[in-house]
Amino acid sequence: MGSHQHDASAGASAGVGALPEPVTEAGRVGLDALLARPGKAVIALDFDGTLAPIVPDPDQARAHPDAAPALARLAPRVASVAVITGRPAGVAVRYGGFAGVAGLEHLVVLGHYGAERWDAASGGVSAPAPHPGVAAVRAELPGVLDGVGAWQGTWVEEKGRAVAVHTRRAEDPQAAFEMLREPLGALAARHGLIVEPGRMVLELRPPGMDKGVALEEWVRSVGAECVVYAGDDLGDLPAFAAVSKLRADGIPGLLVCSGSDEVAELRERADVVVDGPSGVVQLLSALASRLA
User: Fold this and answer.
1) Quick one: angle between helices 25-36 and 276-291, nearest 10?
2) What distance in Å separates the CA atoms of residue 128 and residue 158, rounded to the nearest whole number?
3) pLDDT per residue over 42-80, tens digit each?
4) Which of 11, 19, 94, 266 is the most buried (most CB within 10 A)?
């Protein structure tokens, strides 16, 4: 698929209105279904690495400046646009600049892998009570990091319903990541949580929800007849799997990888690979132009 992936990336950046050619038959069927019946389509996207460039400090992440305008052009032409993220829904809304944008009146942000939901129509977030294990893990985490000598260069991100340990700032990010997998896995298991690995990050969170569950539930609740999902990280693999399941049930889908050499598995399963958040924005703009 390698050479085809480069072709797809080039197609996405060839200019406004230029759509990349999916490298799989299922992807071509998905794109054709979207273009034929946009009013029955769900466009779902990850946030970090897909709409927002990856940065060393996750608190400094912001959506690509053209992301909200591109979504605002596209959203009125499709059944639903949803952002599905591991972040708290409200944080993704702030960092994405999504609130109060004309055209995004029906945007939905599914935060904490779908445990939270923000609706642009109401501006409110609905969510269940937090898992008690998160507070216990948060309290014990400094001791665990200290015990393995992994505090230098690591960054603990408070996510409300989860806690994430980033190693991107460490002297050897991959070594720190590998060293922490086992102790953090044990810590999570003691308190009924799971560890979700990502791009130089290990997130400790409650089980039972992932982007795949959130995506499938949303697609079915909307009554969609096709779906597009764009992601960049290991946490997006369940959403890719959900699209495959929906395809098997007769709902065409298009899988987009926001290109990253760090997550080869996602690239290999994608129908289209674009050049990071800028490529995602170009794809959204091209879709909006085709559907205008």
Assistant:
1) 50
2) 18
3) 999 999 999 999 998 889 999 999 999 999 999 999 999
4) 266
